[in-house]
Amino acid sequence: MPRNLDLTALRSFVTVAEVGGVTRAAGQLHLTQSAVSMQLKRLEESMGLSLLDRSGRGIALTQQGELLLSYAKRLLALNDEAWGRLTSDDFEDTIVLGVPHDIVYPHIPKVLKRFAAEFPRVKVQLVSSYTLDLKQKLEQGKADLILGTEVNCPQGAVSVGSACLNWYCAQDGRVWKKQPLALAYENRCLFGQFAIEALDNASITWELVVDTNHAKTVEASVSADLAIHACLCGTQSADWDVVPDEAGLPALPEFQITMQKGGSANPILTDRLADMIASAYAHQAMPTRSQHLQAI
Questions:
Q1: DSSP secondary structure code for residue 257 in this structure
Q2: Could you report the per-residue pLDDT of 192-237, keeping only the tens digit for each?
Q3: What is the pTM assigned to this prediction?
Q4: Between the CA of residue 201 and those of 204, 233, 245, 259, what are the distances in Å?
Q5: Which of 66, 124, 207, 233 has CB 3.0 to 4.6 Å from 292, enough for a Cys bridge?
Q6: How far apart are CA 178 and CA 182, in angstroms?
Q7: Residue 107 near residue 277 (C-beta atoms within 8 A)
Q8: CATH topology of domain 94-296
Q9: What is the CATH number of domain 7-87?
């Protein structure tokens, strides 16, 4: 049956060992001398060991006491670290995290759950918007940390992963056979610009049949086989398929998943959240173009 060491008694034991006497230890611990002596006695009795050599004028540690001292210092240090992290005002704050809506999954919910467990007094405000909007919020000091999707990683940012842009349609869809090609996009969506440019360069006629402010409208339109859509591999709706090769649609570029920090008032928290996000992408990257082609 496991037994538990009394941390309060251990603190008295360590203090006595460091200052060399019960009286001075009591003063440092703001306890009475008899209270410290009682804690030491209780510690020895609970372990069935003699920890202090009281045969001389002062107090010395026995061999068992020396061994316990090493463990006791580490236990108390870990206790103090945990207590400080969970209760210090330094770890009571709000962090604004900006993430484009199409890359919130699969990593961000898991990261936020881990971060909340480590810093229960810190609130993370998740803001979902387009990359350009999030970069503006970062510059304006309205966000502490942002993710983005960009062809090239900008100065001041780091790339945490990459994913290819690909064409998608409804399962068993046929709308891709029609001309002009029907597209569905949100306003100001960066991917739409690349898709249209690629179609123009390939001399493929197109029309924007869905132009909306809401991602759900795009999802519903594509699922209903009213239009096609180009998005990052791994972020498409579950009921979409890759547009068949026979459609002859042009290849699209690979995008970097970028991360950029602002001038946070509490960089320790921002750095820790950034490390968790980078680790999540490193251990389960989104599919690249080569991986995606192998899968299909």
A1: E
A2: 999 999 999 999 999 999 988 888 999 999 999 999 999 999 889 9
A3: 0.66
A4: 8, 22, 18, 31
A5: 233
A6: 8
A7: yes
A8: D-Maltodextrin-Binding Protein; domain 2 (3.40.190)
A9: 1.10.10.10
